Amino acid sequence: MRREILVYPDPFLARKAVPVGAVDDRIRTLIRDMFETMYASEGIGLAAPQVGVGKRVVVLDVSPVDETIAPVAVVNPEIVLRNGSVTGVEGCLSVPGVQGEVCRAETVEVRGMDEQGNPLRIRAAGILSRALQHEIDHLEGILFIDRLSSSAAASAK
Fold this sequence. Notes:
Structural class: alpha+beta
Number of strands: 7
């Protein structure tokens, strides 16, 4: 089922999401809905708070940019390692029509659970690294426009 994507300045987007206690059928349904919503909106990532659910769940499919990377859902994602830094252009389904350059770690290692509740560890570079960091920021109530330079942020908001 496609869900409505919340749009800035909706205050829900600024709330911290809570950890998922157990991956059950409700979480798996949320994940399916999030993938459907993301694809319908032509996005490459979506966090549960963007569809009004305050849980630590993200879905990503960066294959439009790098077809070698399979779609992934991560429950309770946590960045455990960051290396380097790189600046790149980002946009967001919750901030339509706005893009800006954001500095992110070049590579990250993320741990969490898959949609079956099994431990998951992802080592990411390139677009997957950027997308993971962007979506995990959503779980902390941070939008990419919060990371823009002050002059760029003023024009975006």
